[in-house]
Request: fold
Amino acid sequence: MHRLKKLLSQLYTGWCLFWFVLIFLLLYPVVYISLQKENWKVVAHHCNRIWGQLFFFMAGMPVKIIYEAEIDPKKTYVFCANHFSYLDIALMGTVLKNYFAFVGKSSVKNIPLFGYMFTQLHIQVDRSSKGSRTKALTRSIKALKSGRSIMIFPEGGIHSTNFPQMVQPFKDGAFSMAIENQVPLVPVSLVDNYKVMPEILMWPHQIRVVFHAPIDTTGLTKKDLNDLKTQVYGVIQGTLDKYKA
Reply:
């Protein structure tokens, strides 16, 4: 039974990979052109969202979005989500309606075609380099000041060895930029991705995303940073525990 399930998982993963690459290649000419000017990049952003929507549909993975409060697509936020799967980036690019920039690993730039798109549209960071972390924070703050939201995984990568338990402590970046710019911070719970893609192979499953109520940072200072991290951790982890049960 285990060998059969592994074979089916391999076949399903191949099916998903086929559609993931095919849809990306079909949209890439439009994406590439729209990356050539700053005011065109919003088109590339919308293309990525279409890419994700088509991929999850063809992969047979229904996505259910749960809003605990209204998220204004024209407003600027810092979005923070748990990070358990390589599928998380594609999913957030699909469900977020706001014009946003990811803060992600600089190693992504080495992926053919996708790497070029990511470096032009999003913010790369090498967490082992203090200079890179500082530069990424500066770029993120600049994006927020321009009215563009930021999406970041505050765990700093996929580090948990006991899903759905997140690792602590969270990295400071998301909370520092939210406080400095006095923009709301939105916790996001990705409930099922570790069941769909715990490692490399995938398995079909409904995907649920919970957008929690924005946390107002007006009046907060650096002294409140750790309390804000604790609050966000509690909101996301509490939801993950509830859905696991």
Summary: Strands lie at 63-67, 78-81, 100-105, 123-125, 149-152, 185-190, 207-211.
